[in-house]
Amino acid sequence: MKKKVLSVLLCAGLAVSMLAGCGSDNSAGADSGAGSSSDSADAGDMDYVKEKGTLVVGITNFEPMDYKDENGEWVGFDAELSTAFAEELGVDVEFVEIDWDNKILELEGKTIDCVWNGMTLTPEVTSAMECSEAYLENAQVVVVPSDKADQYQDEDSLADLSFAAEAGSAGEEELEARGLSVTPVTAQADALMEVAAGTSDAAVIDLLMAAAMIGEGTSYSDLTYTVHLNSEEYGVGFRKGSDLAAEMDSFFAKCYEDGTIQELAEKYGVQAALTE
User: 268, 246, 220, 234: which is closest to 116 by C-alpha?
Assistant: First the structure.
C-alpha cells in the first residue's frame, strides 16, 4: 500500500457540527482488564479488543482533534475517525483523557488501547509504540502576544523568552533541543493561558490548535503565532507488536478512497491535500 499523507491548513472558521449518524461514547472509565502489553501482543490486540467489545482511545482535550461539544460529547477530526474505526472492528469506542506525559505507560498498562490525539511521530513514540502510517502533517509553532509578534519572526529572536509547553509534547521537545527556557504544563490549552496571563513570554503548541484557538473570533484574540520550529507527522499509536496498527493502515486507505477524510477535513475547518 502506498503511503498517503494528509496535509492540512486550518481555515479561519472551525465547524463543530457532527456528521449525520456519527456519534461517540463519552463514558469516563477505562477498561479494567489487567495484563501486560506483551500478553496482549502475543494474543493479538485485535482479538483482545473485540473480546472486550470496546476500543479505549487515549486522548486530551485538543481542538480540533478531540474536544467536547455543547452537549459534553467528544467530537473532532480524530474523535470521528476513531469512532468509525471502532465500528469497523465491530466494537464500541470509549474516550479516556490521559496525562499526555504518561501516554506510553497508559498504553502499556492497558488502561487504553491506542493513543489517537494528533500524536506526533517522534523517535520516542515510534520506538515505544506500534504506530500507524502518518495521516496528517503538522508543525510546532511559537505563540506570542499579537502586539509583540513583529519582535519574534525568526529563531534567533527567541533566545531570551520564557516558554510554556505541554509536558511530554513535541513542542517541549523542540524547545529543549534548542536549549530554550521551558515550563512544562499539563495541556496545550494551559500553555496558552500562561502567555495570556503574562507568566510566560511565549508558548509552543501544534499549528492545528493554534489556528483553531487563537486570533480573531477566539478566546485568545490578542495572541498570534509566528515561528514554525519544525514540520512533523501525526500517527496513531498502539502497544508494541500490536496487530491493530496494520488494520489501522488499511482503514486509512479506505477513508481516503471513499472520501471520508476529505469530508471530515471540510467539516472541521481544514483544507486537505493528498499525496501518494
Answer: 234
Instruction: Convert 90-137 into a string of H (helix), E (strand) and C (coil).
Output: CCEEEEEECCHHHHHHHHHCCCCCEEEEEEECCHHHHHHCEECCCCEE
- Closest listed residue to residue 30, CA positions, set 91, 102, 86, 98: 98
Cα 207 to chain centroid, rounded: 11
Half-sphere exposure (Cβ direction) of 269: Cα atoms closer than 13 Å: 18
| Closest to 168 measured CA to CA, from 228, 102, 230 | 102
Q: Which of 37-41, 151-155, 208-212, 266-270 has the lowest mean pLDDT?
A: 37-41
Using 50, 70 and 90 to split pLDDT, how confident is the model at 171? very high
Cα–Cα distances in Å, from 68 out to 97, 212, 268?
A: 12, 14, 13
CA distance 224 to 144: 6
As to burial, measured by CB atoms within 10 angstroms (0-12 exposed, 13-18 middle, 19+ buried), residue 123 is: exposed
* Residue type for position 181: S
At 67-113, the pLDDT tens digits run: 999 999 999 999 999 999 999 999 999 999 999 999 999 999 999 99
Please state, in angstroms and rounded to a whole number, the distance separating the CA atoms of residues 120 and 9.
16
Cell numbers 490486540: residue: 45
Q: Using CA atoms in the order 31, 37, 43, 45, what is the torsion angle rounded to 10 degrees?
A: 60
Whether residue 163 contacts residue 201, with contact meaning beta carbons closer than 8 Å, is answered with yes
In three-state secondary structure terms, 221 is: coil
